[in-house]
Amino acid sequence: MIDYVSLAYLLNIDISDLKSLIGRKLRLMKYRDLEYLVFTREAHGYNEGTVILIGKEPMVIYAYPSIRRLAFLEAASKYMPSDFIVEEKMDGYNVRVVVYNGKLIGITRGGYICPYTTARLSRLYMDKLRGFEQEYPDHVLVGEVVGLENPYVPVEYPEAPRFDLFVFDLMGKDKLKPLSLRDEVVEKYSLRRVRVLGVLSKKDSWRLWEIVDELERDGREGIVIKDPLHRVQPLKYTTVHTNIGDLRSGMKYPFDEGKSFLFPRILRLIAQGYEMKWDRKRLENIAYELGMAILEPAIENLHKRAYGKLIAAEYKLVFPSEEDLSDYLEYMETMGIDIVTSIEGTSEEGIIVRVMKLKQTHNEYGRILETGLSPLD
User: Is residue 331 part of a domain?
Assistant: First the structure.
């Protein structure tokens, strides 16, 4: 039962306005016995992804602010007020971690409590985070979950091949806290943190090229540039390797992710080719990789569909308990996402489940093969 009076006071919104938002810009959700509201669009100064946990003492979990993307590395020094920190940008998914009423909760960038993320992180870190709720009230850890056993971006990292969280920020209400406080919390609670790749002054920002070149050679995603006091918005930059790799992943499912993946990443490559002064040979090599990344996975999946196979993203997940698995299945149904699951066995960590997330591309490819007509002009 929603206490509209208390929530309206907490959010500083009129009760009538609050009620009118529910179902339009606020979505009521439930995880086990905890009800929560998600801002699905910006409203009354609250950004999309902001969450209100409706417990005995309601708590607002503010959306993680957007990060500006650099087109040119040389522009970084224009935006940083003084010395800046260069951190590794890891290839996973953004999670806000809060301890609420003694329980760890993992919230996705969109503002939903992911049962799988919550279960895995609780197993890994709840014991370590006891006391965090009392010592840092209204504070939220923000990090990247990486590893192959995740339901969003399964990428293997040598330092976290299966599943783990790397903290990159600490939020106090709607503000990003100084990185020194984040580091203090990470050390105090024995958490993991993203790699710091350098502390640079504005005059030696040319070293960004060296950092990115090394990441490129290692096949890593990119960098995030931050003011240590968070006085200005962070900046992000991804490697050529990542931009082409993302296209290859997205074009497996051109009617789901391909269109939104395509132009932004081509634009990034255009900027990189300009700034890096690619010669003809380098340009031809990148153009070949780009073309193959766009066409090869899309054509391979069209062949699969022609042979009657499902076009679906596949993940291997490990659930600590049957209840956690049940929570996840219920969550996916609530979100309207079609999945097919099969239990593959058990391990010390829990139940091993193969998940196939069905894609719109499956149906669109089916219609193209059946009619011979293109759905696009």
Answer: yes
Asked if residue 338 is part of any domain, the answer here is: yes
Closest to 110 measured CA to CA, from 95, 92, 90, 98: 95
235-238 and 68-69 beta bridge pairing:
parallel
Q: What span, in angstroms and rounded, lies between the C-alpha atoms of 359 and 341?
A: 15
Joined together, the tokens standing for residue 135 give 């010592």
Burial of 223 (0-12, 13-18, 19+ CB in 10 A): buried
Q: Could you tell me which of 236, 88, 255, 73 has the C-alpha nearest to residue 159?
A: 88
**CB hemisphere CA count around 223 (13 angstroms):** 26
Q: Are 252 and 201 in contact (CB under 8 A)?
A: no
Read off the DSSP letter of residue 213.
H
User: Burial code of 239-263, b = ≥16 C-beta within 10 A, e = fewer?
Assistant: bbbbbbbbbbbbbbbbbbbbeebbe
Percentage of the chain modeled with pLDDT above 90: 95
Q: Is the confidence at residue 345, as pLDDT, over 90? A: yes
- Count of the separate structural domains present in the chain: 4
- In this structure, the answer to whether residues 366 and 316 fall within a common structural domain is yes
Residue 154 belongs to some domain of the structure: no
Boundaries of domain holding 287: 241-306
Q: In terms of domains, do 75 and 214 share one?
A: yes
Q: The sheet that has 26-31: what strands, in order across it? A: 26-31, 34-39, 51-54, 59-61
Q: What is the pLDDT of residues 42-99, one digit of tens each?
A: 999 999 999 999 988 899 999 999 999 999 999 999 999 999 999 999 999 999 999 9
pLDDT of residue 284: 98
Q: How far apart are CA 91 and CA 220, in angstroms?
A: 8
Residue 146 has pLDDT above 90, yes or no: yes
Residue with tokens 């909760």: 105
Is the separation of the CB atoms in 52 and 13 below 8 Å? no
